UniProtKB/TrEMBL annotation:
InterPro entries: ClpP/crotonase-like_dom_sf (IPR029045), Enoyl-CoA_hyd/isom_CS (IPR018376), Enoyl-CoA_hydra/iso (IPR001753), Enoyl-CoA_hydra_C (IPR014748). Keywords: Lyase. The lineage of its organism: Bacteria, Pseudomonadati, Pseudomonadota, Gammaproteobacteria, Enterobacterales. GO terms for molecular function: lyase activity. Coiled coil: none annotated. One of its GO terms (biological process) is fatty acid beta-oxidation. This is Enoyl-CoA hydratase/carnithine racemase. Gene3D superfamilies: 2-enoyl-CoA Hydratase, Chain A, domain 1, Lyase 2-enoyl-coa Hydratase, Chain A, domain 2.
């Protein structure tokens, strides 16, 4: 199996690099499988507390592999398990930072929407062009994009095929910051390293609470948050955090 992704480690942070530059990192079934397998491995590694995903300078990922899509029957697509892999990526508990450069289109944008924090450099071109080749987004794009940018802009991106710049994505709330191409990886790793210094249980519980807000009403969401807040009071990390705060020291969290 060819290495369609690469992985580097940086002091509690894993950096996954999509590695199909000749195809602008188009997401084939094999590539998605390798990505999911690596993310699951990292999710089970207690030394890894945050994950960064990036592509190449030309493309984070320019979509799904249209060659595969064009030749597959409806039943083959339905039974392939390809769509379910996106759900499994979404279920990763470790925080994930996406770093976008160049094209982030179709499945590439849908992958970014699965991540917890998205940043981009000023070359990023973002969109969901599926309707203009006779299909629709199939990895959550219609659902997650509208929750990120609102109905009108999401409809224009999906129906009219509008592509937006990093500046427009920042204004719409789709990304949290813009960098230069030269500093994109550095900035993404810095965010991930800041996450890695926090208490692992607190990070995972906070991530769960934020994601629950997409599916719950305010009253139910606040109740869920309150339950998690009470539960984490029983953790060793909470005691260590309080001790370190009083002593004005760096806390040594263990995830327990």
């Amino acid at each position: 199996m060819s290495a369609l992704i690469r992985c580097e480690r940086h002091q509690g942070v894993a950096h996954i690099i999509l590695n199909r530059p000749e195809k602008l990192n188009a997401l084939s079934a094999e590539m998605l499988t390798q990505l999911l397998e690596k993310m699951r491995e990292l999710d089970g590694d207690k030394q890894i507390r945050a994950i960064v995903i990036s592509g190449s300078a030309r493309a984070f990922a320019a979509g799904a592999d249209t060659g595969t899509l064009a030749t597959a029957s409806a039943i083959a697509l339905y039974t392939s398990g390809f769509s379910e892999k996106w759900d499994q990526i979404a279920a990763i508990e470790t925080p994930v930072v996406a770093a976008l450069s160049g094209y982030a289109l179709g499945g590439g944008l849908e992958l970014a929407l699965l991540c917890d924090i998205v940043i981009a450099d000023d070359t990023a071109i973002i969109g969901l062009p599926e309707t203009h080749i006779g299909i629709i987004p199939g990895a959550g794009g219609t659902q997650r994009l509208v929750k990120s940018v609102g109905k009108s802009l999401a409809m224009e991106i999906i129906l009219a095929g509008r592509k937006i710049t990093a500046a427009q994505a920042l204004a719409a709330g789709l990304i949290s910051r813009i960098t230069t191409p030269e500093t994109l990886t550095e900035q993404a790793l810095k965010i991930a390293q800041n996450i890695s210094r926090a208490a692992p249980l607190a990070i995972k519980m906070a991530k769960k609470a934020v994601l629950a807000s997409f599916d719950m009403g305010l009253t139910a969401g606040v109740s869920y948050e309150r339950s998690l807040s009470a539960l984490i009071a029983a953790s060793e990390d909470r005691n260590e955090g309080m001790r370190a705060l009083a002593a004005k020291e760096q806390a040594a969290f263990t995830g327990k």
